[in-house]
Design brief:
This protein is α/β, with parallel strands linked by helices. The chain has one domain: Aldolase class I (TIM Barrel), CATH 3.20.20.70. The protein contains 11 helices and 8 strands. It has an 8-stranded parallel beta sheet. α6 links the parallel β6 and β7.
Length: 297
């Protein structure tokens, strides 16, 4: 039987809703956070890749983290805290995000994945700036972003790191970290290998489809926790369908699926993800079918 702890489980990612002028719609964001929390994941992940965090100012990131805490209904909230370009800027960022009331901070690997010693020292120095638990994130937006399992193990041994969002997208890559996870939690982000990762010993999931289908991840996690891997395999099939539906045009596609489920969020992004009418119709048709099959609410 797996060994789980308070930092295991489902980390539901939070999208950022924008107005037509691409300013943040904070009112809809609060409704969305409440909606995500109602799905009962173990954690919420604010200021993440799915939040379009690279396009947000520090002031915006700080406010989003604060509102996530306010509307989370007691569910723990993690938020990224090292996006500023300079070290001094990151020191200030850690302090500001910490003061929002989040339960944990997330540190990205910042493009140091090709230098193990530099990566270890950089992340350890960040950890020393806070007493909050730390999740590491192999964020593809700053490459090389992947971390060797041995480096992860050394960071876990410091007692400061509780989890990592693995984005290797290979079963070999995630197994490498699982071998060093100790009492921490290796979290899967790749949907094709989600079931295999659970079988291999991953202790949670933090993935883009949680933005609009967290209920499926809560379901599969419950199945894994009670050792019902046959049921988990079936739920994984539904997760793959959702992942394929949102894949082209993410995260506009995820925003549209959130809208179809009753949250008044439009699908504007700060990127160039404009959904063509045929894509919108495809999503409507798929959602209608998935709802009729009990896959989507």
């Amino acid at each position: 039987m797996q060994k789980f702890n308070s930092y295991s489980g489902v980390y539901s990612l939070l999208l950022t809703p924008f107005n037509e002028d691409k300013s943040i719609d904070f009112k809809v964001y609060e409704q969305y956070v409440e909606w995500q929390a109602s799905k009962n994941p173990q954690h919420l992940f604010a200021v993440c890749g799915s939040s379009e965090m690279s396009s947000l100012t520090l002031d915006e990131r700080e406010k989003l983290a604060k509102l996530a805490v306010k509307n989370a209904g007691g569910i723990s909230v993690f938020a990224t805290a090292n996006l500023e370009p300079s070290w001094d800027g990151q020191v200030e960022e850690v302090k500001r995000i910490e003061q929002t009331g989040v339960d944990g901070l997330v540190f990205i690997t910042k493009g140091y994945g090709n230098d193990n010693e530099r990566l270890f020292k950089y992340l350890y120095d960040l950890c020393c700036l806070t007493e909050l638990p730390i999740m590491l994130y192999e964020f593809p937006g700053t490459q090389p972003h992947l971390m060797a399992g041995e480096v992860y193990g050394r960071l876990v041994e410091t007692g400061r790191v509780v989890s990592i969002k693995d984005t290797t997208c290979t079963i070999e890559g995630i197994k490498d970290k699982i071998a060093y996870q100790g009492d921490s939690n290796v979290l899967q982000a790749n949907m094709p290998y989600l079931y295999d990762a659970f079988v291999a010993g991953a202790r949670g999931v933090v993935a883009t489809p949680t933005t609009c289908g967290a209920h499926l991840f809560v379901k599969i996690w419950d199945e894994v926790c009670r050792g019902d891997f046959e049921a988990a395999k079936h739920t994984h099939e539904h997760i793959i369908l959702l992942d394929n539906a949102i894949d082209s045009g993410f995260n506009a596609t995820a925003k549209y699926l959130v809208n179809l489920q009753g949250v008044p969020m439009n699908w504007v992004t700060r990127g160039n993800n404009v959904l063509a009418p045929q894509k919108l119709n495809m999503l409507r048709v798929w959602y209608g079918w998935a709802k009729s099959q009990g896959i989507m609410p």
